[in-house]
Amino acid sequence: MSTINNTRELTRREFFEQYVIKDSEELVDTKPYHTFLVLLVAVEMLGKMLLGETNEKGKSKRAFVEAINDIDALSPYRQFNHERTNYLYELRCGMAHSLSLTNNVTLSLAPDKNDLSNGVIGCRDFLEDIKKAWNDVQNRDDLNVNLDEKVLFVNNSITGGTATSIAQNAGV
Questions:
Q1: From the centroid of its chain, how far is CA 80?
Q2: CA distance 166 to 12
Q3: What percent of the chain has pLDDT over 70?
């Protein structure tokens, strides 16, 4: 991380390791709902890294499903793929857009262990699978983005809070 004019610049790698992995490890036991939301969005981020796509509107589902289908560490979640959707993606949409579960999704959030055959995703198990997926993605030869490209700029000079802006071509 470098700082220019009181603004920190983070690479994709720094962002994912700090704000997805490390922060989720700190929150998983006390805030599993919030952690689960971050992890669901992280699946989409990983898919965008594989596809080399930016934040182009309408591409989130494609990126999410790509990550589930193409990253071996996420293979247990392929069972949520259905003809026209992925139920885990539907859960992500409900949580990310309205901070609630969608009506047609019956997955349960459990604090620890997966019981995927019964639609239960344990937050801690999901975090461990995301960490494995991140390791897989970092080591891929066919990765379509530069993980060390600066993509997130955090301005630390605003009183009472932090303002962030993400470059449109960030791919995260």
A1: 17
A2: 11
A3: 75
